[in-house]
Design goal:
Chain lengths: 251, 216, 251, 216
């Protein structure tokens, strides 16, 4: 029997060595695999290269990993946000390396790694400083620059539901980088709200087939859902509205 | 001295140029205001690059869903007829030329249609490009929404951009608080001047040679 | 109101001029847009270049279009099948041009056209006669050849259900080339079993978002379904099993 | 003269080398027989390049579904846990190296692992490649299933292929009716000889210098 499920987040992130390249799904907080990142912080791996769209928000998740000084370099499209104070401080102090990649190139380069493409001519960034030094070519009158795949040793992904074969479905815009990152890493580790019995995901609607997934851990239902139904009652950070109003900041 | 219309008036003006059935991406910041002025009796489908076509307006406080956000990471809703997809598919839509219109902010637009809107190049600033470069080269029509002048009175319409470029020759039209300009092979052409602005007064403000736009 | 639905297949294929490049979904018979092809035959366009995986089966669909001498050239991966007698005859008579593309390159080149990729380095076909004359490159120790996008003026696609915005879902392996061809054509024309009200397709499970679709026509439910439930009773050609047994061949 | 095992025996032999949890693509023709010998108490996930992972066996006549076929365009079923996807995603799985094993037929395999299985190059034949070239270069292990000799007695294991190539240096192992050979940097190595075949008799049949395979 194939069983990719693991009992807890600690087990899910075991064996990630120092110096690894780790992809992390998420666009801002949506789809960020916070429980896996917390487990990675506890696990202790350092000198990491992170591939993600952003460079962390607030003091949790990726930001907490950065604050713990575990990240040598981050490859992302948009590090500077209103709540990216952890990254901002490290960057200004020269304590983290940054590689900026236009978001569409980031996505397509990750997809290329998963799909076995050696390199591709992209229309994005042509004539800008982010394309300096890259091979350029005009094809049928349009200008392109050559972009290479981005691979990773590990991908940490957050999905809604998974089964023991690793088939996944996502929720709304929390899907974002999950499916392509799952395809581009040697080992893909996924947190889901719930592990469902094999066969209960409709094969027409599986977004990430299990072939791309190595480990799946259930972390419990997100608090704005109740048995799959949206109940709200949170702010955009996912905090209950009452505590958000009274406490200011805490997860 | 010269007539300036408000942000909301400018958003309304841009909305008036977007036809029913268009697929539209509204960039982060001021361009999102355009959504408020799209006619309610027409169907215009909004794309957000983080994986949604058919984006609706902001929810009320009880319906904020952290999984459902726009590119500016604000809470949004999904309309009947919406579709979710992953990031490579979403940027494929943009880069593949499937969007009819995108509306972007700008630091500068050159008379050859170069756009600078992602970085001032200031020392010590943290670079962050997001999807700006993909949007700039991807949509069939790239509209820029901006003040004509910086806070210190310099024209954002320029002969050549001094800020780092977002895209080369990509801007279709510039909607400013003073006037609307088309980007043409001969430089900026005045499409519509608001209030008492004229070709002459705008030429003076921008320091550029402006033509009158041809009808289209 | 956006309404991409059209009343009949005749209207759906109107305006396709002689000399067009037309993509046709389908892998063998599965997902082949037979009703649209029948309408195209009636419409009369000729001198066509067809992009498809196969070169027609039996005497219906694409094979019938070929038999009507409307096709100048076909770009496909696998023309020769046990029931491709129409193509075989034309090819041996020198009456049709053939360009063979490995199936994965065919799929990826179509996808590249839809996604704005100028060209890409593919690992498939390296060192074979199908890569002769193509630009080759070694990247990180692996050999690739440069492949260019395949675009079309029109795509004819078969899906299960669609709505008036053009959102589509497919059925089983009949999905095959539909989603990528829909993205790669200037005008995408889709036949569906049923047009459903806007909002009745779950946004999480839409496979082709309407942005890629221009016209949708309902052609009635495939005969092995009854109100969405599989009832069988057909052979692989989709003919009722009784008539298949008694008649030999007819659609 | 020499021992030859049957197609079914060969399929069973190949099946024995496929480990539980593997993702496997079985090529058109004889390789599909391997599915009949995969152990029923183990989960091995079959991929068909026309868009399905988790392919099951052929349905009975009452359950033939024209929408659910394999790469050979035969009726199949989908297991619980299956997933459908489009052609670019399906071939991305193959070309991206996500399949553990594929099993392919062959006209010839060279001692450097080149595979020829799509065209005899005969004048007047209609070329048709399908997914053969993608499978040949895509899977982590490429197994070839074939008779050792052609009907006219020529070895299909060769120094250099004379037929048009499907892929270069891509074959991992060759399962023939006489013996199993690994492709190594030093040429073919005999992994297992069936019945009374020996390194010597097989060298004679093939005209090749064969080594004994190292254990692994």
């Amino acid at each position: 029997m194939i069983d990719k499920t693991v009992p807890d987040a600690e087990t899910a992130v075991s064996g990630i060595p120092d110096g690894s390249t780790v992809m992390m799904g998420g666009f801002g907080r949506a789809g960020q695999p916070v429980e896996l990142i917390d487990a990675l912080i506890a696990q202790g791996a350092g000198d990491l290269t992170i591939v993600a769209n952003n460079a962390g928000n607030g003091d949790t998740g990726l930001a907490a990993l950065l604050a713990a000084k575990r990240v040598r370099k981050i490859i992302c499209s948009f590090p500077r946000q209103h709540d990216s104070w952890v990254f901002d401080g490290l960057y200004r102090a020269g304590e983290i390396e940054l590689e900026i990649v236009p978001q569409g190139n980031l996505a397509e380069r990750i997809r290329a790694a998963g799909a076995g493409i050696g390199a591709f001519f992209s229309p994005t960034g042509v004539g800008t400083e982010l394309a300096e030094g890259k091979e350029a070519r005009t094809i049928e009158g349009r200008d392109y620059v050559l972009e290479y795949p981005i691979r990773a040793d590990f991908a940490l992904v957050s999905a809604l539901k998974g089964d023991r074969w690793g088939n996944l479905v996502y929720r709304e815009t929390a899907r974002n980088f999950g499916p392509i990152m799952a395809s581009a890493a040697t080992t893909t580790i996924v947190q889901v709200d719930e592990i469902v019995p094999l066969g209960s995901l409709d094969p027409e609607t599986v977004v990430t087939p299990g072939i791309f997934v190595d480990r799946v851990v259930a972390v419990g239902e997100r608090i704005w859902l109740d048995d799959g139904t949206f109940i709200g009652g949170v702010d955009l950070e996912g905090r209950p509205v009452e505590s958000a109003l009274s406490e200011g900041s805490a997860r | 001295m010269s007539t300036r219309i408000s942000r909301d008036e400018l958003a309304r003006r841009i909305a008036a140029d977007i036809r029913e059935g268009s697929y539209v991406n509204l960039g982060i910041g001021a361009p999102t205001l355009v959504a408020n002025f799209l006619p309610e009796d027409q169907e215009i489908i909004l794309h957000t690059e983080n994986g949604l076509l058919g984006m609706g307006q902001a929810p009320d406080a009880d319906h904020v869903d952290p999984d459902l956000i726009n590119a500016g990471k604000q809470a949004v809703t999904a309309l009947p007829g919406a579709a979710y997809f992953h990031h490579a598919d979403s940027f494929g839509m943009m880069r593949g030329g499937h969007l009819d219109v995108c509306v972007l902010g700008a630091f500068q637009v050159s008379q050859t249609g170069d756009l600078a809107n992602w970085s001032t190049g200031a020392p010590g600033s943290i670079p962050a490009v997001g999807g700006a470069m993909d949007l700039a080269i991807g949509a069939k029509a790239v509209y820029v929404m901006t003040d004509l002048l910086t806070k210190t009175g310099e024209s954002k319409l320029v002969v050549e951009c001094s800020y780092p470029l977002t895209g080369v020759g990509c801007v279709t039209r510039v909607y400013t608080d003073h006037a609307v300009f088309d980007v043409t092979p001969d430089g900026f052409a005045l499409r519509e001047a608001f209030g008492d602005n004229t070709l002459e007064s705008l030429s003076e403000l921008t320091g550029l040679t402006l033509a009158a736009a041809k009808e289209n």
